[in-house]
Amino acid sequence: MTVQAQIIEKIKAYDTIIIHRHQRPDPDAFGSQMGLAEILRTSFPHKKIYIVGKNVPGLAWIASMEEIPDDVYQNALVIVTDTANAPRIDDRRFDLGKELIKIDHHPNDEPYGDLQWVIAGASSTSSLIYKLVELSNGLLKLNANAARVLYAGIVGDTGRFLYSVDSETMRVVSELFKYDFDVIAVNQAMDSISEAAAKLSGYVLENVNILDSGVAYMILTNEIVTSFDLGDAGTAFVIPLPGRINTVKTWVIFEEQDDHSYRVRLRSKQIIINGLARNHGGGGHPLASGARARDKDEVNDIIDELDRLVRKSTYGYGKE
Ligand code: AMP
């Protein structure tokens, strides 16, 4: 039996299913989690289906999370979407259930759980959730809201079809569009930023450092971020910006944390950067990875390593 068929069997067998996703969620994390919940609720009205983790005001248009007591996990099936490694799972009770399933599209660095369905090359976990419906021989049913949130997840993780996009992704989008939801409203929600965010975007584009090699970097200290008064919006919207500059090949944004370490967000047009991320305790996709830097010294090390990596790669749009 394929792993997808085994997952469908588990879903059939359990009355209570709790769905988790990663911390610091993005639209694909929320979309795959909520999309699966909507599908399961539509397909099995008598099962108890929950989504858990922290609420994110900026993603409230996709889903709001539920609070459940620990005892709900007894005899429950737990499914984690879009999360490569167990330490990143939001709501640490993910292992209190009877069985654990991982559905993800990141490299399978940590195959946690009893069953894993991981397609590392897929453009999003939301598209995998749609595939699960197709593979279920009519057992799993989509509704318009599931289609809406899965589409939001796909738009999010493909960078609005700029990055990891392929014919399979567009086929899934085409299928989702057969459901009655407001596509333009999703596109506008994905494209909107606050005035404060617009000002920080201007700051990043004006102040980003660009090395001769084509490496761009920006250090966002707490002081800088606080001065823009972003509220709870986070800074995810600035991450793609340096990549729009035509001389930039790879870029990295360092975000200072409360403990003065730095969240490291690496992106690249062609040169593979997840090995570098792994060398600094992180990981991720070949062209979109993350890590953590202890201090300014490690920040400088990462900039140097990236500079060396880009210099030794073939110039232009070729091989690494
Ligand atoms: P981010 O820059 O946080 O949006 O992350 C980009 C990609 O890198 C995502 O696919 C994450 O799963 C992955 N990633 C980010 N931070 C880490 C980390 N500390 N460890 C492993 N993977 C990470």
Main traits of this protein?
inorganic pyrophosphatase (n-terminal core); six-stranded mixed beta sheet; 11 strands; single chain; 320 residues
Description:
Residues 17-154 form the DDH domain. Residues 245-311 form the DHHA1 domain. InterPro entries: DDH_dom, DHH_sf, DHHA1_dom, Oligoribo/pAp-PDE_c-di-AMP_PDE. This protein is of the alpha/beta class and 320 residues long. It folds into 2 domains: 3-191, inorganic pyrophosphatase (n-terminal core), CATH 3.90.1640.10; 195-311, Roll (Diaminopimelate Epimerase, Chain A, domain 1), CATH 3.10.310.30. The protein is 36% helix and 17% strand. It has 10 helices and 11 strands. It has helices spanning 3-13, 27-43, 125-135, 144-157, 167-176, 183-191, 195-207, 222-227, 274-279, 296-312, and strands at residues 16-20, 48-51, 77-81, 99-104, 115-118, 209-210, 215-220, 250-256, 262-268, 283-285, 288-293. It has a 6-stranded mixed beta sheet. The chain is globular and about 60 Å long. The structure holds adenosine monophosphate (AMP). Residues 84, 106, 265, 282-285, 288-292 line the site of adenosine monophosphate (AMP). Residues 84, 106, 265, 282-285, 288-292 line the site of adenosine monophosphate.
